[in-house]
Write a structure and sequence with these properties.
Elements lengths: L1 H16 L6 H16 L9 H12 L5 H11 L1 H20 L6 E7 L8 E9 L2 H70 L5 H36 L23 H11 L1 H22 L5 E9 L5 E9 L8 H66 L5 H36 L15
Antiparallel strand pairs: 1-2, 2-3, 3-4
């Protein structure tokens, strides 16, 4: 009896010692470190509502800068916070995969009605299959946890990129609205001057009609620009996780232009090495490989072993061992193996497709950035100065009554269009830089290899 008691105790200790540990916090710390290296801002989980509101108030006080908007989004965006919860789910699955199957206890007592004594049987069964299934099961969930962590980092990158572009869009529209309002006020003053000249016989009815039409067109253009600004602000609020109750003022500037595009070969290499969505796809491939191994070992999934005790009616105590096996006669797990093999092949193709997509996205973003640089430079260095000179001449000769209002209005319209085009080009340039950084998988100003932030 002593020997079998020690055997039972050893089994219990073995089962307890092999239990999995929750890794949610470790996974979260890895995500924080990786995100900070790639984005330049530390994400945080929204856990305390009071502290969350205080954080929002601190960031909004005095106006919101561009990187403050990114920080707010990474701490308050509801979609991103939901993605953070996926880490806890995956970590719980990993912990569950590391737990042994609960032992089963069978108890049987017989009480005969005659003179013979009672009979008692007790069996304690432990899953013997855990010996060969526990390791592959944990490997599958470990790979899936890495996959989820990489996907969360990609969500962080996506949220940061969307926030930067939305912030710049709001800032550009803020400037465009101010420019459009100033132009509308100027045209209205000219219209009044045309009417004054008309009363003294120095303007024609054609100039009156053109001036009235320009005033209406400028007012409509201003209304359209203001409506677009409200839509852009609503998008920025959504990304920041704010409501209409929060007063948001932007204090950023578009003065600093992004640098010239880096070497295309270098950024492509960095993207293929470290983009988090590629890391997620590769982790999914490893998970599929381990899942196939698990299915191959799951043919003998139900094998149990444990001690048994029996008390015979004649009073004799018997000790022994019970082995319980489900024979794979009808279901040999072949279908599940074929399914796992097909999923592995699918995962391999998905990694190849993802790598091809990364190459395409990097080239596209790089070309858009190069084109945006050329366009912004041409508008700033050539078109804008030419339009400004033309307007100055038109205004000068109109005031000297050597030109009619038509030439001045045309010069003003073309100058306003050039200014608008330049602001839009500045926005396109900044947006293209953000998109290239997203295509690469992190900040291009950081020379550290992507995907190695935790080293």
């Amino acid at each position: 009896m002593k020997v079998w008691s020690q055997f039972t105790l050893a089994l219990i200790v073995w089962v307890t010692a092999m239990g999995g540990a929750a890794l949610a916090e470790d996974a979260w710390e890895d995500v924080v470190s990786e995100s900070e290296a790639r984005v330049g801002t530390t994400p945080a989980r929204a856990e305390d509502p009071a502290a969350q509101q205080a954080m929002i108030g601190d960031l909004l006080e005095g106006g919101l800068a561009r990187e403050e908007a990114v920080e707010l989004a990474l701490r308050n965006n509801d979609g991103l916070q939901a993605a953070f919860a996926e880490l806890g789910i995956a970590a719980a699955d990993l912990e569950q995969a590391g737990l042994h199957t609960n032992p089963s206890l069978d108890f049987l007592a017989r009480f005969p009605g005659g003179e013979s004594g009672s009979e008692l049987e007790v069996e304690l069964l432990f899953s013997l299959a855990d010996i060969w299934l526990l390791g592959p099961r944990q490997e599958v969930e470990q790979a899936r946890l890495r996959q989820v962590a990489a996907q969360v980092v990609n969500d962080v990158l996506n949220t940061a990129a969307d926030t930067r572009m939305a912030y710049d869009h709001c800032l550009v529209l803020q400037l465009l609205v101010a420019q459009t309002a100033e132009t509308a006020a100027t045209i209205e003053k000219w219209r009044d001057q045309v009417y004054a000249r008309y009363e003294h016989g120095y303007s024609s009815e054609l100039e009156l009609s053109m001036a009235d039409a320009e005033v209406v067109a400028s007012e409509v253009g201003l209304a359209e620009m203001e409506a677009e600004q409200q839509v852009a602000r609503a998008r920025l609020r959504r990304l920041l996780g704010l409501t209409d109750e929060h007063k948001v003022s932007l204090v950023g500037s578009l003065a600093e232009a992004p640098p010239a595009p880096p070497d295309l070969h270098d950024v492509t290499r960095r993207a293929l090495a470290g983009r988090p969505d590629l890391q997620a796809a590769r982790a999914g491939l490893w998970a599929s490989d381990r899942a196939l191994l698990l299915q191959r070992k799951s043919r003998w999934e139900h094998v149990s072993l444990g001690p048994a005790y029996a008390h015979e009616p004649d009073g004799e105590d018997l000790w022994g061992v019970v082995l319980e096996v489900d024979l794979p006669l009808f279901d040999s797990n072949r279908a599940q193996e074929r399914r796992a093999a097909a999923e592995l092949g699918q995962a391999e193709r998905q990694v190849g497709a993802a790598e091809a997509m990364v190459r395409e996205q990097v080239v596209t973003a790089w070309e858009e950035l190069a084109l945006a640089h050329r366009r912004e430079s041409a508008l700033r260095e050539e078109l804008l100065p030419a339009r400004e000179r033309a307007f100055e001449h038109a205004e000068k000769y109109w005031r000297e009554m050597q030109l009619n209002m038509l030439y001045l209005l045309e010069a003003q319209r073309e100058l306003s269009d050039a200014r608008r085009q330049h602001l839009e080009a500045v926005y396109d340039l900044r947006r293209a830089w953000v998109e290239l950084e997203f295509a690469v998988g992190g900040r291009l100003t950081d020379d550290r290899p992507l995907g190695e932030a935790g080293d």
